[in-house]
C-alpha cells in the first residue's frame, strides 16, 4: 500500500472506493476456514501428528505436484470460472476489484475457497500419506502460496529484470504483478496460477504482458500539485492510515474495533521505532480532483510529542524538511494539518515563510476556510454567542467576524477579552462583552471540553478546533469540527480523515486544495488569512458542501 501511494511503479492507475473496501472486509474468512480445515486434518490423519521437521524427498514431491497437477488443474478450473454460468454466480465477486490490493487475492465466495483448498491439498497430502511429509515443507508451501497470491494482486511491479535476464526460462515459472493485473483488466487472458507456462501452451498469454511489465518496472515520476502534511495522532492511528489496515481506515478512527487491543504492543513498538528512526515525512495516500493530483504526507510523530518542549525543534526540522522537499519537487501548495500549524510551534507556518522568502510552494494553514465553515454553521437569527477559549487563530477570527456582523460575543475570561478587544475594530467593539452571568444558547470555541459543564440545557456547541471533543452531554447539540463534504468527482477516496465521516474533509485541508484550484499566490500563515467570503464562495463553486444547512435558531431543525 505504501508503494501504491508513492505511485512510481503503479500498474493500474484507477480509483479505489469505499464499496471495494467494504466488499473486501471479509478477508479473514479464508484464514478462519483454512485453520478449521487444517485442524480437522490434524485430528483425523495420524501421519499429521508424526511428521518430522524436514524431509527433502517429501519437499521435492510437493514441488513436483504443484508444478504439474496443481498448476494444470488450476488453469482449467480458472478458465471454467470465466464461463458466464460460473462467472456470474461465483468468480465475478473476485473480479469486481479491477484495481487489486494484496488482500483482494483471498476475496472469493465460500465455494471457491473450498475448491482452492482441495486443489492445494494435492501438493500437501500425498507426501504425508507416503510417510515423507514434513512440517517445514508444509509451512513453506503455504507461505509460498500466500506470498505469491498477495504479490500478484499488489498493483505495483517489483520483480527485478535481472532475474529474467540471468535465467530466461524463469518467465515460464513465476508470474509478475503486471502479468496477473492484465487478467483483472482484460478478463480473458493470463489464467495461470503462479507459473505462466500453461498460458503459453494454450495461447492465452496477453500480448501486452511484456510491454506492461517493462513500463511498470521503469515507473513514472509523479509530482503532486497539492500536499497535505499531517502527522500521527494516537497509537492506533498507525492502523488508521491508508497504508495500515484498510477496513479500519475506511471508518472514523473513533470507531473502535474489538481486536484493536491485540495490536497495542505492535503499535507501541512502531511508535518507538518511528521516534528513533523516523527522519522524514512519508506518503500515505493520493487523491485526484479535476486535473490536480494530491498526496497526503505524514510525519512520524504523535500528538503527545508535540506537547514536549524539547521535541519542538526536532518536529519543526521535520516540517521544514518536508516543505523544502515539496518545493524542490515543484508542488504548488502545501497545507499544514493538525498540530503542524500550531501557533506555539511555528506561528501557523510563519516561521518557514519568513525563513525562506523565495519559496515557490504556497504554505496554507486553512484558517480562512475553517472560519467560514464555523460562521456558516451558526443558526440564522443568532444574536448572541458565548466564546469559550480564544487560543486559536480560527476562534479569534470567528469572534471578530461575528462582531463585525453585529452579533454579540460574550467571554468570561478577562485576559482573552482584553486580547480580543484590541483586535476588534473600534466601531464594533460594543459587540464584544465581558460577563460571568450571561450564557447564550450558542457556544463557540476551542476549549469546549473544559467549559461545557456550565452550559444550559439545549446549548448548541460549535467547535473551532481540528480535534474532536472528548466528552458530550446528552441534553445538548454538537456540531462537527470545521469540515465539508467533498465533491463526487474526487477520486481514490476510500479512507476517512481521522475522526471525520466518509467523504468528509477538514476545512484546513480543503483550503489547500482551493488555493491550487483558484491559483492563489499568497501564503496563508502567521497573521495572514484568506478572505473568508472569498474562500467560502470558492469552496461552494468547486463542489464542496457544508455538513449542516443554516437554519433558524428556534426552528427545531436537527443540526
Please supply descriptive tags for the structure shown above.
559 residues, alpha/beta, Rossmann fold, 6-stranded parallel sheet, 5-stranded mixed sheet, disordered C terminus, transmembrane helix
Describe the protein:
The protein has 559 residues and is of the alpha/beta class. It folds into three domains: 1-218, no CATH class; 226-366 and 490-546, no CATH class; 369-484, NAD(P)-binding Rossmann-like Domain (Rossmann fold, 3-Layer(aba) Sandwich). The protein is 45% helix and 10% strand. It is built from 25 helices and 14 strands. It has helices spanning 2-6, 18-23, 28-44, 46-49, 56-81, 84-95, 110-129, 135-152, 161-166, 177-186, 197-201, 209-218, 237-240, 246-249, 260-277, 303-306, 312-329, 343-346, 350-355, 367-375, 393-404, 414-421, 448-451, 507-518, 532-541; strands spanning 226-231, 282-289, 292-299, 333-336, 362-364, 384-387, 408-411, 432-434, 442-445, 460-463, 477-478, 483-485, 504-506, 545-546. The strands form three sheets. A six-stranded parallel beta sheet has the order 8-7-6-9-10-11, covered by helices on one side. Strands 2-3-1-4-5 form a five-stranded mixed beta sheet, with helices on both faces. A three-stranded antiparallel beta sheet has the order 13-12-14. α22 (414-421) links the parallel β7 and β8. It is elongated.
Gap between N and C termini: 37 Å
Described by strand count, sense and barrel closure, the largest sheet is: 6 strands, parallel
So what's the overall shape? Answer: elongated
- What is the tally of beta strands? 14
Average predicted confidence as pLDDT: 93
Treating each run of at least 4 consecutive H or I residues as one helix, how many helices? 25
Helix content: 40-55%
Oligomer: single chain
What strand line-up does the widest sheet have? Answer: 8-7-6-9-10-11
Rounded to the nearest angstrom, the radius of gyration is 29 Å
* Category by helix and strand content: alpha/beta
- Note the beta-strand portion: 5-15%
The total tally of domains equals 3
Return residue spans where pLDDT drops below 50 for at least 5 consecutive residues.
Answer: 555-559
Subcellular location: Endoplasmic reticulum membrane
Keywords: Endoplasmic reticulum, Lyase, Membrane, NADP, Transmembrane, Transmembrane helix
EC number: 4.1.99.5
GO biological process, one term: response to stress
